[in-house]
Amino acid sequence: MDGSMNINPSEQELGAADAPFYLPQDDEIDVFAAAYTNRLPVLLKGPTGCGKTRFVTHMAAQLGRPLYTVACHDDLSAADLIGRYLLKGGETVWVDGPLTRAVREGAICYLDEVVEARKDVTVVLHPLTDDRRILPIDRTGEELEAAPGFMLVASYNPGYQNILKTLKPSTRQRFVSLEFDFPAPGLETRVVAQESGLDPDRCAALVRLAGKLRALKGQDLEEGVSTRLVVYAATLIAQGMSTDRAILAAMVEPLTDDEDTKRGLLDLVAAIFG
Question: Coiled-coil regions in this chain (predicted)?
Fold first, then answer.
């Protein structure tokens, strides 16, 4: 696709031995594998930065399937996913979009934050999320039947939903759904230690701070701190940065621009770390 489309599908084809680290919270691996075996689409629900994308990447590697990841946004249209005619070398040629490529190849197509896309996107997905498993391409007259191995996965953050950006019940009920949340403190400490290389005791203190910050969601903060940001802070500390500076850069500044709120968060940091 050309650069003007503002879409960057990522392709990964990994063996199980190369699967990125993922620590399961419950039976989500078993449910996802069963959905894949039975050719069922999957919807992941949960807050930003709780591990949804890492989970999909891990599962694609475990299953040995190519993965196309699309970060959905306000301007993402059905044509961006399906494809369009482009001018190349003086000729007009059809170029498949990431969804079409996944359907043809039997890959996993992951639509991250699907509610951010334009409404015509969900209409395109419907024939792929029932027993037909087809993708009509009006521009070329094709009706593609999904190749073996194709799987549609979508995610969204219910906390960001409003009347203008939500999945209709008719769409949600086409998917097997998995609900994600931030890991329990013990699990999150293991994840942060594994990803950052910081010792578990200091990781546990960062995770305690994250829990306190998440409790402020809906009060002083619009969204709680993600596991991703905790890993960032731990990584900076592991590389020699002071704890206070790492927390400010990775766990406070990304959460708010309001100076009064920042001061309040730093008081909380001081209460935990002294």
Answer: none
Sequence-separated (6 or more) residues with CB below 8 Å from residue 175: 40, 41, 42, 43, 129, 154
Share of the chain above pLDDT 90, in %: 73
CB proximity list for 16: less than 8 A, separation 6 or greater: 61, 62, 64
Tokens standing for 107?
């890959």
**E strands along 173-222, which residues?**
176-179
- List, for residues 195-213, the tens digit of each pLDDT value: 999 999 999 999 999 999 9
Q: In whole angstroms, give the CA distance from residue 55 to residue 69.
A: 12
Distance separating alpha carbons of residues 97 and 13, to the nearest angstrom: 18
This prediction's pTM:
0.86
